[in-house]
Amino acid sequence: MSNSHMFLPSGFIRTPLQNGLGRYIPQLQRITLKFCKNHGGSRGVRDFIESDLMEFAKTNPGTVVYLKPRRHRSPCMVAEYLNGEREYLSCHEFSRDEVHKWLSYMCTRSGIPVMRFRKYQHTDYPTVQGVWNPFTHQAPEINIAEFPHEVLSRPLDHGPTATEQLIEIFKKTQIEDPANKPPEL
């Protein structure tokens, strides 16, 4: 087991501006692709730009794409999010598919830094009643009962089911008005 999680900042799950409750707002504001026009390590980025960049720009109209050619430098991607965070990724020796995958990964991120979670649930307004679970309102005699128990093992009688009630209503309407009888096959 690795202890690399110990060096991550810890926190709670946060959604930016309650994104997704009304409509989804993509959090990637702009992406900058920096590459060299002749260097071999930039081949995948150049291939992506030549073949897939226009399709990416059409499918993500809310994201601005900048291309920045640089001489004799290693290729990289810089993603800037609406919350002000920036993410840098070196694309040295990436293939065209790898550039596409990393770009779609950055599009789906919220920009919130990767962190380990302290708890599985968190609220800003804690309840005084405690956390609900399926056993909260169960009868306390179940805790000390030994099964099979004759009283607790009996099936509950809740009356007729919804299907039985509908069949009963249908039969009543047939008795009252025989003209509405469905045709027999």
In short:
Keywords: Mitochondrion, Ribonucleoprotein, Ribosomal protein. The chain is an alpha/beta fold.
Summarize the structure in words.
With 185 residues, the protein is α/β, with parallel strands linked by helices. The chain has a domain at 8-117: Glutaredoxin (3-Layer(aba) Sandwich), CATH 3.40.30.10. It is 24% helix and 16% strand. The chain has 4 helices and 6 strands, in the order E-E-H-H-E-E-E-H-E-H. It has helices spanning 43-51, 53-59, 96-108, 162-176; strands spanning 10-11, 28-35, 64-69, 76-81, 86-90, 116-117. A 4-stranded mixed sheet has the order 3-2-4-5, covered by helices on one side. Strand 4 and strand 5 (86-90) form a beta hairpin. Helix 1 crosses helix 3. The protein starts with 9 loop residues before the first strand and ends in a 9-residue tail after the last helix. This is Large ribosomal subunit protein mL43. Keywords: Mitochondrion, Ribonucleoprotein, Ribosomal protein. It is found in: Mitochondrion. Its main location: mitochondrion. Pfam families: L51_S25_CI-B8.
Notable characteristics:
mitochondrion, 24% helix, ribosomal protein, 185 residues, ribonucleoprotein, 4 helices, alpha/beta, Ribosomal_mL43, Glutaredoxin, two-stranded parallel ribbon
Which helices and strands appear, and what pairs or packs with what?
Elements: E1 10-11, E2 28-35, H1 43-51, H2 53-59, E3 64-69, E4 76-81, E5 86-90, H3 96-108, E6 116-117, H4 162-176
Helix pairs in contact: 1-3
